[in-house]
Each structure stands twice: as structure tokens, then as C-alpha cells.
Amino acid sequence: MIPFPTSGNAARPHIPSPGFADPVRDAQRCFRKLLAAISYPGRAQDLRGLLSIAPEPLYPTTAALCLALLDVETVVWLDGPLDTPDVRQFLSFHCGCKIAAHPGEAAFALLDGETAAPRLQTLHPGTPEYPDRAATALIQVPSTTGGVKVTARGPGIAEAQEFEIAGLEPEFWTRRATVNAAFPTGLDIVFVDPRQIVGLPRAICVEGAPPCTLR
């Protein structure tokens, strides 16, 4: 093995943040948590302990989802502040996924909650014949508590499920409703904070969001 240089002008090559300690079991654990989040919309699922560090500005929780979901056949869109050289290198090294040149090409999109609202309508919502080709949005937010309280109704919810997502723009819920109006097309969403995830499939209706005027 050739050792790294310890002197002179040559720099050590950048090494991506580590992935799962146990790739198979940790990916399975992460995927089970994601399935629970999608099966029980609006209920937070704890994702701590899978990864301790991630390339900023990705949360370790977001990075764990990427390790469980993305592979060499996946096309992902990195939006705004999440599109950094370190994030690209992490995903390339651990997942081998392709980075989309346009959001409409992506199967998964990594979005920031503060700017996610207008991006929703640029993602692929699938088609009536192939609704499974719709993109899934992983949206980083400061917290899955402490925002405006809304109510979810639909499949997987006995009556109603109240939840809060902090850090979203006021028009987010209106834009989501517009994108999902022609069910079965639409977007599945996973909100991600530094500790937890909250799933919101396209079939779920969200009530109680404040009115807004789209820009």
C-alpha cells in the first residue's frame, strides 16, 4: 500500500464521510423505519443511531435514508444548498447514484424546507398509467415539531392525525395539494429533521394549513 505523503505540497485526498457500520442490517433498519413512516402518515419515526456524521448540510438522518434508498440505477436531484461537492462525493462513493441535470428527471429529490414549495411542481408526478414513476421528495426541515399544526386524513389513518412541520414556506401545503390533485399521480414526501422522519404519501389530505397566495 502506498502511504499518504506527510510533507511537501501534496495534500491528502478527501475521504467521504463514512456510511453504515453494518451496511446490510443498518439499511434494513432504516428501510423499516421509512415503511413505518409511510404506513402511518404524520407519525414521527426515530432515525437516530444509524449514522453519527454526514457531509454538511445533510443531516445524518437524511444521509441514512440515501444509503438505504439510492443505488447505481437511481437518479437523484440535489436542490439549492444541498447541492455541494461533499454531498455529491458522498452519494457517488456510497450509493453510486446519478445526479439529475433537471428535477423532472429524478426518482428522488433532496430539498430544503425553506425553498421546497416552488420545487414541488418541477418534480415528476408520474402518469396515470405509471404513477409509480413519480418522484419521492426528501425534505430537510429544522424540526418535525413546532410548526403550524395540520391534520392528515386518508389511508393508514384511522380518523385523523395531527402533526407539525417547522420551517416550511406558507404556500407549501397549497402547492402540495395542487401537485397531488390528479391522484394517483403526485408526490410522496418524507420530512427529515436531525432526529426523526415523518412520511406523507400523495393519497393523504392535509387540512388546517394557513391560506396563502401563490407567487
What's the layout of helices and strands?
Blueprint: H1 23-39, E1 45-46, H2 60-69, E2 75-78, H3 85-94, E3 98-99, E4 108-112, H4 116-119, E5 136-140, E6 148-153, E7 161-165, H5 172-179, E8 188-192, E9 196-200, E10 205-207
Parallel strand pairs: 2-3, 2-4, 4-5, 5-8
Antiparallel strand pairs: 1-9, 6-7, 6-10, 8-9
What would you note in describing this structure?
Helices cover 23% and strands 20% of the residues. It is built from five helices and ten strands, in the order αβαβαββαβββαβββ. It has helices at residues 23-39, 60-69, 85-94, 116-119, 172-179, and strands spanning 45-46, 75-78, 98-99, 108-112, 136-140, 148-153, 161-165, 188-192, 196-200, 205-207. Helix 3 (85-94) links the parallel strand 2 and strand 3 (98-99). Helix 1 packs across helix 2 (60-69).
